[in-house]
Amino acid sequence: MTTTGDRIADAWLDAMTVLCELTPHGWHAERGDARALVSGVGVGSLNIAVSTAREPGPDSLRSLDEAARDVAKHGLPWSIVVLGEAGADLAGLADRHGLTGGGPITVMVCDADRADLRAKPALIDRVGPHRSQDYTEVLAAGFETPAGIFGDLMGGGVLDDPRIAGYLTESATGLGIRTGGLIGVYNIAVRPEARSQGLGRAMTARVMADGFAAGATSAYLQTSTVGRPLYESMGFRTVQTWATFFTT
């Protein structure tokens, strides 16, 4: 029986694969029930070895180890993601690869008929490839990361693909990736000086509304503790907690 969490995991994996196929320096591979997903930019959460096994065993650990070696050889910051709880064996594997940090990933879902899309009006542009550099500049500022860290992540065919919608204001970004009948909400980032003005909610609502209009039945996202109250107020509920391992 396929659960809501399973559908989200599959949609997220497909979305990340699409991104890695389209971004200029992306690469991906399947290794048994693990995947290696490399965006080619210097952000650890965008270069990932993923275990898709629902009940990890010796074979799945070997597959994840192979995927981890594939990702690590690109020489970029990277991480391991487990779509569920991570036991001692998985933690030990991550440690052997030098990924000594770790934590939970909160995964939330909002069905279209439960969504509260009310938001303050905001002039939000849906942007194409010609605005990819503008997009990554605002994205970096919104996440308070070094300028240029996202490189040409949004270049190539990313913002020209019908499954992907990029949204931009002078101070905020958003991204929707539609796979598996769901709309994934990504890159909700607001410049520090423009926060607490409703831009994050407006951007999230726009991504969701366009995704639902295109046929998605539910929206999903990953959130921090800080962002969770906002998303709960829009109709999201927590459905799964994944595990991640990264360098410290």
What would the keywords be for this entry?
N-acetyltransferase domain-containing protein; Aminopeptidase; 30% helix; globular; 11-stranded mixed β-sheet; 6 helices; 248 residues; alpha+beta; 2 domains
Unreliable spans are: none
Count, helices: 6
CATH topology of the largest domain: Aminopeptidase
Q: Which of globular, elongated, flat, extended, rod-shaped describes the shape?
A: globular
Chart the SSEs and their pairings.
Blueprint: H1 4-22, E1 27-31, E2 34-38, E3 47-51, H2 58-72, E4 79-82, H3 88-96, E5 101-111, E6 125-127, H4 132-142, E7 164-168, E8 172-179, E9 182-190, H5 199-213, E10 218-223, H6 228-233, E11 237-246
Parallel strand pairs: 3-4, 9-10
Antiparallel strand pairs: 1-2, 2-3, 4-11, 5-10, 5-11, 6-7, 7-8, 8-9
Can you offer a commentary on this structure?
- One of its GO terms (molecular function) is acyltransferase activity, transferring groups other than amino-acyl groups.
- This protein is an alpha+beta fold and 248 residues long.
- It folds into two domains: 4-107, no CATH class; 111-239, 3-Layer(aba) Sandwich (Aminopeptidase).
- Helix content is 30%, strand content 29%.
- The protein contains six helices and eleven strands.
- It has helices at 4-22, 58-72, 88-96, 132-142, 199-213, 228-233; strands at 27-31, 34-38, 47-51, 79-82, 101-111, 125-127, 164-168, 172-179, 182-190, 218-223, 237-246.
- The radius of gyration is 17 Å and the shape is globular.
Quick recap of the structure?
The protein is an alpha+beta fold.
